[in-house]
Amino acid sequence: MSTTDVGWLLGIEIGGTKLQLGLGRRPGSIDHLKRATIDPARGAEGIREQIRKGFLTLRDEVGLSAGDVRAAGVGFGGPLDAETGRTETSFQVEGWTDFPLADWARENLEIPVVSVHNDADVAGLAESRLGAGVGCSPLLYLTIGSGIGGALILDGRIYRGAGRGAAEIGHLRVPGVAPDDPLDMPELEAVASGWGIGRLAGNVGKATQKRGDRWSVLEAAGAPERITAVDVADAAWKGDERSLAILDRAREALTFALCQAVALIAPRRIILGGGVSLIGEKLWFRPIRERVDAQVFRPFRGSFDIVPAALGEEVVVHGALELARDALAAS
Predict the structure, then answer these.
(1) Which of 55, 78, 316, 322 has a CA 20 to 30 Å removed from the CA of 24?
(2) Taking the alpha carbons of 240, 241, 243, 248 in that order, is the dihedral positive or negative?
(3) What percent of the chain shows pLDDT beyond 70?
(4) What is the pTM of this model?
């Protein structure tokens, strides 16, 4: 990774609810950052307008002119073709189907070099070069939030398989909520993501209501469908048995998925990021490490570690700036 100042670069994160734009010159440094909340009802066109206006505001604040930003990287929350810079779709916001995002950015932001990748891949790239994965290859990165995304980084580069992505660990099938039913094999993110934890807690809440029992989590949320992963985690820290059991289900599913990933790709390090990982060492990382160690393919035991992500909320912006740097060097 070069530490050379190549001029101003732009990093963009396009999520389902969050938009971030950052200007930087040197690796690991975001000199100017702008955050915005996405309104899904405005669709992709509304997001693009936010990007255009936000970039112009950033540029004016820094005192830059058109053409002063040499390259841009984009981390997009959905599947895409990184070679062409076209998004395939978004599962959260309408209007991104087969959209030429790289071409749009070049034209509307007046930036000649633009690189677009999936946001989980971009975050993994940032952690590999600047965060908890420095010096580790292969590196497996997971972001566990409203969904679950994954990235495989080899020698500081995103691995994209045959071209449409790789390491989509959130879509692995795992043993289901009803282990006695062999056909119940949901995707990992349906069980261990923030949405999945909340959904399972909602089902527990409905069963609690039906029995006429009391449950502090349900009483605090007001209705089963309002229970979130944050509610479950808070109650688990206080020792609530039902919340602890729900978290245990998520940890067990994640353990299963990680053991399959280790057997296939033998990573040197696994990094867990995203909001769910903020549950912390005692209730998240330690139990997962212990279970993976007990269940993983024995010859690979001890060859990897599992650590928290290091770059926080700006991780995708850091990675997008690295994308821009790479794209500029290759242009």
Answers:
(1) 78
(2) positive
(3) 97
(4) 0.93
